[in-house]
UniProtKB/TrEMBL annotation:
<feature type="binding site">
    <location>
        <position position="104"/>
    </location>
    <ligand>
        <name>NAD(+)</name>
    </ligand>
</feature>
<dbReference type="GO" id="GO:0006089">
    <property type="term" value="P:lactate metabolic process"/>
</dbReference>
<dbReference type="InterPro" id="IPR001557">
    <property type="entry name" value="L-lactate/malate_DH"/>
</dbReference>
<comment type="function">
    <text>Catalyzes the conversion of lactate to pyruvate.</text>
</comment>
<feature type="domain" description="Lactate/malate dehydrogenase C-terminal">
    <location>
        <begin position="148"/>
        <end position="312"/>
    </location>
</feature>
<dbReference type="InterPro" id="IPR015955">
    <property type="entry name" value="Lactate_DH/Glyco_Ohase_4_C"/>
</dbReference>
<keyword id="KW-0560">Oxidoreductase</keyword>
<dbReference type="Pfam" id="PF02866">
    <property type="entry name" value="Ldh_1_C"/>
</dbReference>
<feature type="binding site">
    <location>
        <begin position="121"/>
        <end position="123"/>
    </location>
    <ligand>
        <name>NAD(+)</name>
    </ligand>
</feature>
<keyword id="KW-0963">Cytoplasm</keyword>
<feature type="binding site">
    <location>
        <begin position="151"/>
        <end position="154"/>
    </location>
    <ligand>
        <name>substrate</name>
    </ligand>
</feature>
<dbReference type="InterPro" id="IPR036291">
    <property type="entry name" value="NAD(P)-bd_dom_sf"/>
</dbReference>
<feature type="binding site">
    <location>
        <position position="16"/>
    </location>
    <ligand>
        <name>NAD(+)</name>
    </ligand>
</feature>
<feature type="binding site">
    <location>
        <position position="146"/>
    </location>
    <ligand>
        <name>NAD(+)</name>
    </ligand>
</feature>
<feature type="binding site">
    <location>
        <begin position="123"/>
        <end position="126"/>
    </location>
    <ligand>
        <name>substrate</name>
    </ligand>
</feature>
<dbReference type="InterPro" id="IPR011304">
    <property type="entry name" value="L-lactate_DH"/>
</dbReference>
<dbReference type="InterPro" id="IPR022383">
    <property type="entry name" value="Lactate/malate_DH_C"/>
</dbReference>
């Protein structure tokens, strides 16, 4: 009996795309990685370099450069190609160029017979996710963006540093836009099962002095803090988040990850892709978790989605 190898295609082999590939290979997530880039020599070089690492990894992975016509049997396509913002620009400033780039990518991929899952990393990720969903014609469970997955990791890291605990012992989400309009439902942030707000209340002289608005702002700006220091891109965190999503799909893990998902009535929202906690399994977005937010939190989340819908409309959707 023939066993179909798990195959992931990566479109865009810059720092983010190549980091996604390294994370896939290093963790042994799939049997094949297809590297695609307009700069074929760059994609080939990345594939060669990664292939030379296989000797020292726990699992053999076939890594090779190719084209969109080879995506027909891919399980997942990651889109990292786009127009990176320049210093002083926002993610939204890259929207029009990134949308055009995605048009040139998605059409030939769909012509190849692709019927797998799109994972969108390209910014502005929420708007581009909705755009790819529309032009691909795939069902909404098969198209998702990395959304607020890395922002949520940043939130957990910050709280863990304040409380001196493992960030994996912190549960909480950044939601809404992967950008300035994101929000944190503090009523659903827990440390070891205990509400973070309760911890602040019980420790007024230490944690009680923390400014939640300031933390929320820092989380939304942390990507820029990395971007400015590194001189142009963040890639380790976001590539790890993307591969975490892919693992949950390929291994049917049912992990709850805050991805940019197409909303169709959840939280009372329509016609938008937004960062929300979702169950990710072999069906893609299996279900979207609707957490019970306070009225203030609901208002912030709604405001973020109204902003995203405005930009989505700019693309004609």
């Amino acid at each position: 009996m023939a066993i179909k190898p798990r195959k992931v295609a990566i479109v865009g082999t810059g720092l983010v795309g190549s980091s996604c590939a390294f994370s896939l290979v290093n963790q042994g997530v799939c049997e094949e990685v297809l590297m695609i880039d307009l700069n074929e020599e760059k994609a080939l070089g990345e594939a060669m370099d990664l292939t030379h690492a296989v000797e020292y990894l726990p699992k053999r992975t076939k890594i090779y450069q190719g084209g969109y016509d080879q995506c027909g049997d891919a399980d997942v396509v990651i889109i990292t190609a786009g127009a990176p913002p320049k210093i002083g620009q926002s993610r939204i400033d890259t929207l029009d160029i990134s949308a055009k780039i995605c048009n040139s990518i998605v059409e030939p991929i769909m012509k190849s017979g692709f019927d797998g899952f799109f994972i969108i990393v390209s910014n502005p990720v929420d708007i581009i996710t909705y755009h790819v969903w529309k032009i691909s014609g795939l069902p909404r469970n098969k198209v998702m963006g990395t959304g607020t997955s890395v922002d949520s990791a940043r939130l957990k890291t910050m709280i863990s540093e304040y409380l001196d605990v493992d960030p994996r012992s912190v549960q909480g989400y950044a939601m809404g836009e992967h950008g300035d309009a994101q929000m944190i439902p503090w009523s659903h942030v827990y440390v070891g099962g205990k509400p973070f707000l309760k911890i602040m209340e019980e420790n007024p002289d230490t944690y009680g002095k923390l400014n939640l608005d300031e933390i929320e702002y820092r989380v939304s700006q942390e990507g820029w803090a990395v971007f400015n220091r590194k001189g142009g891109s963040t890639y380790y965190g976001i590539s790890s988040a993307a591969v975490g999503i892919i693992k949950s799909i390929l291994f049917d893990e049912h992990s709850i990850i805050p991805v940019s998902a197409i909303l169709d009535g959840e939280y009372g929202e329509y016609n938008v892709a937004s960062g929300v906690p979702a169950i990710i399994n072999a069906e893609g977005v299996k279900d979207i978790l609707e957490i019970n937010m306070t009225e203030q939190e609901k208002s912030k989340f709604k405001k973020a989605n109204e902003s995203l819908r405005g930009y989505i409309a700019r693309l004609g959707h």
